[in-house]
Amino acid sequence: MDAFIKQVSDLCEGTIDHYGQHVVDRTAQLSLGIVATIAFLVGLVLQDIRMSLVIFGFSFFVLLLVVVPPWPMFNRHPVKYKSVAIQPKQ
After folding, report:
1. Tens digits of residue pLDDT in 51-65
2. Residue 39 and which of 24, 54, 76, 85 are 20 to 30 A apart at CA?
3. Mind listing the GO biological process terms from this record (predicted)?
């Protein structure tokens, strides 16, 4: 049972670097803005709010699949920490 919990925990960990976080943030913001505009315009032209909501909802879930998992492309620039300099005791 502990092994199963460890596997689930490892899958849910989702570590990405700072540059990857920036890419995810910009991708989500731009995509949601573009999709919201397109959904609004389609709903306006067709005079159908349901179509507008379907377009936005479907696009939102596709965007979730793109930005939420910790894909390897979001972890290409890992943080390099300085090594600790041990000072001799005096």
Report:
1. 999 999 999 999 999
2. 24
3. protein targeting to ER; signal peptide processing
> Containing domain of residue 24, as a range?
19-70
The pair of structure tokens assigned to 8 is 């689930």
Whether the predicted pLDDT of 36 surpasses 90: yes
| Count of alpha carbons within 13 angstroms of residue 56, beta-carbon side | 17
Type of residue found at 53: L
Exposure of 1 in the CB half-sphere (CA atoms within 13 A): 0
Model-level pTM? 0.71
CA dist 27 and 5 (Å) reads: 32
**What's the confidence (pLDDT) of residue 46?**
96
